[in-house]
Design brief:
By secondary structure, this protein is of the alpha+beta class. It is 41% helix and 17% strand. It has five helices and three strands, in the order E-H-H-E-E-H-H-H.
Length: 86
């Protein structure tokens, strides 16, 4: 990840964009403090598709699955656990 001061990033904007495309995210700083990050469109789109962003639960996944309504029994057994000899 590259780091650019705001003034340098403004002066070399095309280079910052190319670096984001080739090398990954580029940090922009002002007075040594992070004020922005430039990423490629591909990196931005993939970050937007993360499960944490979607906030889908496992039950949502099974409910929307192509197997929903197929007769597959996904209910949990409420019987006691069996004893296993160790």
């Amino acid at each position: 990840m590259g780091t650019w001061a705001v003034a340098e990033a403004k002066a070399k904007f095309s280079e910052v964009i190319e670096s984001a495309r080739v090398q990954g995210a580029q940090e922009i700083t002002r007075n040594g403090k992070l004020v922005g990050i430039l990423v490629s469109p591909e990196e931005w789109r993939s970050a937007k598709r993360t499960p944490a962003q979607n906030e889908r639960t496992m039950s949502d996944f099974f409910r929307n699955s192509p197997l929903a309504g197929s007769g597959l029994d996904l209910s949990r057994s409420r019987t006691k656990a069996r004893k296993v000899a160790l």
